[in-house]
Amino acid sequence: MTATTYRPTIGLEVHVQLATRTKLFCRCEARFGAPPNTLVCPVCTGQPGTLPMLNAEALRLGVIGALVLGCRVDEQLHFDRKNYFYPDLPKGYQITQWERPLAQDGQIVLDRPEGELRVTIARAHLEEDAGKVIHPEGMDVSLLDLNRAGTPLLEIVTAPELHSADEAHDLLVELRRMLRYAGVSDCDMEKGGLRCDVNVSLSASDDEALGTRTEIKNLNSFRFVAAAIAAETARQRELIEAGGRVVQATLAYDPDTDSVRALRLKQDAHDYRYFPEPDLPPFPLAAEWVLELREGLPESPTARSARYGEQLKLPPAEVETLVADKALGDYFEATLAAVEQRELAVSAHGVAAWVVNGVRHLANERKTRVTELAVSPTRLAELLALVHTGSVSSQAGKRILDALEQDGERTAEELVAELGLQQMSDPEDLAQLVSDVLQREPELVARYCEGKSGVLNALLGRAMEASGGRANPNRVRSLLEHTLDATSAPQD
Amino acid sequence: MMSAATIAGRVRAGELDPVSVTRGALKRLEERDPNIHAYLDADADAALERAEQVAEDAARGDDPGRLAGVPISLKDNIAVKGRALTAGSRILQDYHAPYHSTVVRRLLAEGAVLLGRTNLDEFAMGSSTENSAYAATTNPWDERRVPGGSSGGSAAAVAAGIVPVALGSDTGGSIRQPAALCGVTGFKPTYGSVSRHGLVAFGSSLEQIGPLAAHAEDAALVYDVIAGHDPLDPTTTPAERPSAYKTSASVEGLRVAVPEELLDETVEPRVLERVAAAIDLLGDAGAITKVVPKGRLAHVRLAVPAYYLISACEASSNLARYDGMRFGPRLEQDDLLGTYQRTRGSLFGTEVKRRILLGTFALSAGHHDAWYRKALEVRRLIADEFRALLQEFDLIAGPTSPSGAFPLGEKEDEPWAMYQCDALTAPACLAGLPSISLPCGLAKKGPYKGFPVGLQLMGRAHEDHRVLAAARAFEALRGEPERCALYGNEVAS
Ligand SMILES: [Zn+2]
After folding, report:
1. What's the rounded Cα separation, in Å, for the pair A112 and B129?
2. Which of A47, B157, B281, B459 has the most crowded CB, counting CB atoms within 10 A?
3. Test mutation, B85, B169, B326, B327, chain A, max A CBs within 10 A
């Protein structure tokens, strides 16, 4: 008899913060990091007599998010109240969508090693975020910060169709990529812009019936989601194997101990007493408007990936890098456009190489985003023009890229002049350079003459170094070959 | 005292000093309020300062507005920036509103002088103003009787001749019933025509702010000022609104339904007698009145339970914010739950707690469908029946309240009896219709002998101007209203 193996079934509830300037039901800024209680007003602090006013931009982004996930958008917008007491919930209820979510029945397709995995998006709905209770260390008080109260969220719920921590992780990565592409959310986890609840249940793999479900609340990193699923799967399996029973519960994951602990059991579950929000009458969502948004949807990552590969003929590694980071891809597109505007014959591949190897590294080094670099796509295109016409070598180009970033004002051309990085193309200068290098490196020359032609690259490197990167590498290479072949020829 | 329209007209013409008008109102308040407790606070300095400002505007030649120099009192559940706002509850003791309600902005823009906060049943829950945490207001006609509620303070202030107009709020009858019991006019507008921004919420889907006035004309004037679409209240409707003040006051040719369901045996016979006489008066003036036999408003008998369920459900949620965390007193305990329980348990009154419990129960899992949803179904049926009847008729007429002013304490321990006070007024709230209560004489005999009776007129949604025009016509037919016995001719002059 073989031991039973257990298969986890996982569903995700993801809360993403919509990229609006203001909150969902008032005109306060929805911004992270402001001093406590400076982004508040009578509405979002729940003062008596105040009423919610829907932020149209939040609705628009919510619908776009739903469309990107392939959901069917409802014909009417309905809000409900979810009632519970907690100090961070100013009104004593959260305005959310319960009975009729904004959208339903979407799908995310994951490209898994074992093949395509289709995961159903059960629903997506709008709701407001709560504030924060802060417990300052060493003080016997709790403090309340309502800056976040009323921030617009889109809650996205998947069907329980995932079966491993790895699949859940991939789904989150793809979801984040799709939402960022559409400009729906920054999904910035460090600022709480994406938070995740996970449902886990186990079933014996020869038995279709799902076991009792537990929910792990409020995970704020993809790593923790995967780790929490692994920990909870193991816990449930051990429990079942020891003859115990899984109890329905809400759990929290503790990364320090890599384990879950119960927040509350089913019998203590909240009764949220949902009912329609009387302050926000049902609002029709015109089919034409939704269609307009659908038609205006920005290119999806999948479509962009296909276009880069098939149309622009970029190598797979560069496609992946450019598509993984939308900002980088956008930077590439903008540079390509600027290059085309100058009617330069630089290939898309050439531009991509500069963006992936040059710009991306620059941003990584400076720990900043490409959108915040001083080197704009237009300035990069100016540099590419100089490289393309041979005014500077591509090696010198890298130095100019650094200089462009540091300077921020002067053009590439001005910096070339200042740094003396004009490409060395004069035949006499080059001949002198090559002859100097050959004289300094007799050992390499000897090995070349022994037939070790690979040594040529080392000699080229020495020559480029000696020229401060200014020499035209192609011409140096042919000059080296020519000279060396001439010297070694008589011995044949 | 003069009507609001007269005061504003004379102030605008430079014939009347708003400061003297305000002084007069404050003097009457000082003399009469100790007997009736209509006011929680007179706010005299602010009122005089404001009157001076209106006087300066007028002197400069600026038009001081349609309510120039008119002293208006507000029920203390309407926010005025910087001023106390208690909703008659200990849980809002010392709370000051950080913003102006929309109605206040509109009144101030037309030159009104805000004079005092009037008493109410706690969070507007009650029909006698005995549920205020601060004091019970009494009826100016007889201090041993209630003024009705929950806008009892506003009704008593107008009935006592202190101010010509006051604002109240009406969730199930809270403007009209006290107006009837105090012998003044009280108007509940169509749901969505007056902004609720700044009204302390009780039953959000039902309530409206509206005027209580000595003259129907003033109710129309104030309604014109406060009504209108407000981006701060998404339930307000952007519909065009003809001026109620300028609509010609006539009932000629109006088809008036008198449904038997509103005249049933629970209504005091001497009240019915006065209402019947009033309806005859409308007929004499050219209205086509018709008694509609039982059946057309079959579900009206369920209005009270439906109204109490829906309003309690909404209240249980609306009042959750009073938790002692961000404003109001906090009765701190060792843990959070304890603090919530102590704060809310001690600072809410009995009636408020009763309704929070009722609403919490009716919304809870397993009971939601049997209670809350059922009540919504009844509400829809009632609304449909009224809509159908109003396709054949222009107005529906009947009594406002089943009784007249009853003795203080009579229904205090009998919530169900108290709830029946709303039997005739709740339907207009459930259906969202405009409805007015007009004084139509004093009961001739019985337990309410010598006390005022109210005639209720209801109209189609968004036809507030027609209801108010009919009210003005009726007032002209009836002649000067019989004045408050306490203050005799002085009030009428
Ligand atoms: Zn705000």
Report:
1. 69
2. B157
3. B326
- Cβ of B97 and A47 within 8 Å? yes
Among this protein's residues, is B401 annotated catalytic? Answer: no
| Residue A212, Cβ density class (10 Å: 0-12 exposed, 13-18 middle, ≥19 buried) | middle
**Helices A394-407, A412-419: crossing angle, 10 deg rounding:** 110
Report yes or no: B199 at the A interface, CB cutoff 8 Å.
yes
Of A51, A93, A281, the CB nearest to B196: A51
B378 domain-assigned: no
A15 forms bridges with which residues in the sheet? A155, A195
Q: Which two tokens stand for residue B171?
A: 């969730």
B364 in contact with A, Cβ within 8 Å: yes
User: Looking at beta carbons, which residues of chain A come within 8 Å of B93?
Assistant: none
**Chain B touched by A45 (CB under 8 Å):** yes
Catalytic residue among B174, B195, B316, B403: B174
The verdict on residue B312 lying in a domain is no
Nearest CA in chain B to A276: B314
CB B191 within 8 A of CB B203: no
Q: Check whether the bond before B89 is cis (ω within 30° of 0).
A: no
Q: Which domains does chain A have, with CATH numbers?
A: 6-288 (no CATH), 301-419 (no CATH), 427-491 (1.10.10.410)
CA of A33 to the centre of ligand 1 (A): 16
Instruction: Answer left, alpha or beta for residue B492, where phi above 0 means left and psi between -120 and 50 means alpha.
Output: alpha
A38: part of which helix (H) or strand (E)? none
Q: Give yes or no for B105 touching A (CB within 8 A).
A: no
Structural domain harbouring B204: 4-252+434-478
Per DSSP, the three-state class of A27 is coil
**Token pair in block for residue B375:** 């009540």
Q: Please state, in angstroms and rounded to a whole number, the distance separating the CA atoms of residues B84 and B93.
A: 8
Asked if the C-beta of B226 comes within 8 angstroms of chain A's C-beta atoms, the answer is no
Considering only CB atoms, B200 lies closest to which of A49, A87, A92, namely A49
Domain for residue B79, yes or no? Answer: yes
Q: In this structure, is residue B371 part of a structural domain?
A: no
C-alpha span between A98 and B242 (Å, rounded):
39
Beta carbons of B199 and A49 less than 8 Å apart: yes
pTM for this model (two decimals): 0.89
**How far does the CA of residue A15 sit from the closest CA of chain B (Å)?**
24
| Distance from the alpha carbon of residue A84 to the mean position of ligand 1, in angstroms | 20
Structure tokens at A19: 């990229």
Q: Please tell me the total count of domains within chain B.
A: 1
Angle at which helix B102-109 crosses helix B216-226, to 10 degrees, equals 110
Contact predicate B116/B42, CB 8 Å: yes
Whether the CA torsion B277, B282, B288, B290 is positive or negative: it is negative
Could you list the pLDDT tens digit for every one of the 492 residues in chain A?
A: 456 788 899 999 999 999 999 999 999 999 999 999 999 999 999 999 999 999 999 999 999 999 999 999 999 999 999 999 999 999 999 999 999 999 999 999 998 999 999 999 999 999 999 999 999 988 888 999 999 999 999 999 999 999 999 999 999 999 999 999 999 999 998 888 999 999 999 988 766 678 899 999 999 899 999 999 999 999 999 998 898 889 999 999 999 999 999 888 776 778 999 999 999 999 999 999 999 999 999 999 989 999 999 999 999 999 999 998 889 999 999 999 999 888 888 889 989 999 999 899 899 988 888 888 888 898 898 888 888 877 777 777 888 888 888 887 888 878 877 777 777 777 888 888 888 888 888 888 888 888 887 888 888 888 888 887 778 888 888 888 888 887 765 544
Q: Kindly state whether A42 is in contact with chain B, defined as any CB-CB distance less than 8 angstroms.
A: yes
Read off the CATH number of the domain in which B185 is found.
3.90.1300.10
**Cross-chain residue pair A42–B101, CB shorter than 8 Å:** no
HSE toward the beta carbon, residue B317, CA cutoff 13 A: 27
Would you mind telling me the total number of residues written for chain A in this entry? Answer: 492
